[in-house]
Design brief:
Elements: H1 3-53, H2 61-64, H3 68-71, H4 90-122
Length: about 140
């Protein structure tokens, strides 16, 4: 082997050995950070589980004294999960719209028939039956 090639090989090997410990230290640090993040996440989850399990236990005497109006007080509303947008073709969208309109029309007709029969039974024949409100929108 020529001296020039031997020197190049030695230089490459030395360079690789110098970079090796740096890469190793970097990877170890990443691993440590990932483990710490996982431990924090697990601690947060267990704390949330413990908090959720606490109200299920026996209420104290002080809690029992609260009035029902205070118990019925709702908690602050949670953010709703965003609805997924359906990828519909125009034909399918029109088909679904027609089906929904038919369903709403049937529902209104059923409401109208129940209100007329119930009003006929309750009121005298001289009174006119109630009309369903026309302010409902189809939502289209």
């Amino acid at each position: 082997m020529k001296l020039k090639n031997l020197r190049k090989k030695i230089q490459r090997l030395e360079k690789r050995l110098q970079e090796g410990p740096k890469k190793l230290a970097k990877l170890k640090q990443k691993l440590q950070q990932a483990e710490a993040a996982k431990a924090m996440k697990a601690a947060r989850k267990s704390a949330a589980r413990a908090a959720a399990a606490r109200p299920a236990g026996k209420p104290s005497a002080r809690v029992e004294k609260k009035s029902t109006a205070q118990k019925a007080k709702p908690k602050k509303p949670r953010a709703r999960k965003a609805k997924r947008k359906l990828n519909l073709s125009p034909e399918r969208r029109a088909q679904l719209a027609a089906a929904m309109k038919a369903r709403w029309a049937a529902k209104r007709a059923a409401e109208a028939s129940t209100t007329t029969t119930s009003s006929d039974d309750q009121h005298s024949a001289s009174e006119s039956p109630q009309q369903p409100p026309e302010s409902k929108q189809d939502g289209v």
